[in-house]
Automatic annotation (TrEMBL):
It catalyses: UDP-N-acetyl-alpha-D-muramate + NADP(+) = UDP-N-acetyl-3-O-(1-carboxyvinyl)-alpha-D-glucosamine + NADPH + H(+). Pathway: Cell wall biogenesis; peptidoglycan biosynthesis. Pfam families: MurB_C. This is UDP-N-acetylenolpyruvoylglucosamine reductase.
Length: 312
């Protein structure tokens, strides 16, 4: 399995971390191959379409992972896999990730998982397809359900892992199945909920319902939602919204909107966004997250739960 060095001060959206060795998992590492999909119902397939950024476009082919051929051992842990004597934590493209400079045993899926396949009743996407590629494909072929991805960074695997969404729109609403640890699992058994999932294992691919009618009218509202998002390096929403409340409102209420510890701060434009003011470091970010949890709990009795994933 290939190992490459990634500089998280450039690679992660918040620009915090260090140069770190990361394992890159490709299809051949897990013995994966494309096989002909056997549909339950026949639906005419879409014509070939060349999407940008090197996504592979397929017709009627689906990902098959014969577990006996894998170099990896799949385990019942969230986003983890065993390789030799190590447990590797699989990340996406570090858009909602805070990475310690001392972290080790990270892995990511490579470009061989960057594919889109029309399999008749579903559109199947590899976990490495990025959000813009997915959005453009659905827009091109007048398919509804992923309109919010235009304004939401990430890759399909990570977006499904956290059940990403904007306001009332979530990825689980369009999702049909996930390939987890080589097995296709129906959405009702995935345990998807607000910004997370209860099921364990590595997501290799996803299948989405193919429903005609791309909702162009929603695009303006999605862009408007991001109008107040900060333009500085950020990991996106730091905390999940508590039931019937908003993390940003709670943080602002305890005086943390715009509050900084050296070069890490909660944004002045949106209190729930952790931003890098220039040369922020991991320890200060952890300290600010801890302070926020403490203040909100003291004032409101609510324990905030991190939406950002922390890799120590």
């Amino acid at each position: 399995m290939e190992v490459k060095e990634i500089d998280f001060t450039r690679y992660s959206s918040i620009r915090i971390g260090a140069k770190t060795a990361v394992f890159v998992i490709e299809r051949h590492d897990v013995g994966a191959e494309f096989v002909e999909y056997q549909p339950h119902t026949f639906t005419s397939k879409l014509p070939s379409y060349s999407c940008h950024n090197k996504v592979q476009i397929l017709n009627n082919l689906t990902l098959h992972v014969p577990l006996a051929c894998s170099l990896l051992n799949f385990v019942d842990l969230a986003s983890c896999v065993r390789y030799k004597n190590d447990t590797l934590y699989v990340i996406g493209r570090a858009n909602n990730l805070l990475v310690s400079p001392n972290v080790s045993n990270l892995a990511m899926l490579g470009e061989s998982f960057n594919y889109i396949s029309d399999i008749g009743e579903y559109i199947e996407m590899g976990a490495s397809v990025n959000s813009l590629q997915a959005f453009l494909y659905f827009k091109k072929y007048d398919i509804r359900g992923l309109e919010f991805l235009k304004d939401l960074p990430g890759v399909v695997g990570a977006l499904c892992n956290m059940n990403a969404g904007m306001k009332d729109y979530e990825i689980k609403d369009t999702l049909a199945q996930l390939n987890i640890n080589g097995q296709w699992i129906d959405v009702e058994h995935l345990g998807l909920h607000y910004r997370g999932r209860d099921s364990k294992g590595i997501i290799f691919a996803a299948r989405f319902h193919k429903q005609q009618g791309f909702r162009k009218a929603l695009l303006h509202s999605f862009s408007a939602m991001r109008k107040f998002h900060p333009h500085k390096p950020s990991c996106g929403s730091c905390f999940k919204n508590p039931p019937n409340n908003y993390a940003g409102r709670l943080l602002e209420s305890v005086g943390l909107k715009g509050f900084a510890i050296r070069d890490i701060a909660f944004s002045t434009s949106h209190a729930n966004f952790l931003v890098n003011l220039g040369h922020a470091n991991f320890d200060d970010a952890i300290a600010l997250i801890g302070l926020a949890k403490e203040r909100v709990y003291e004032h409101f009795g609510i324990m905030l739960e991190c939406e950002v994933k922390i890799c120590k």
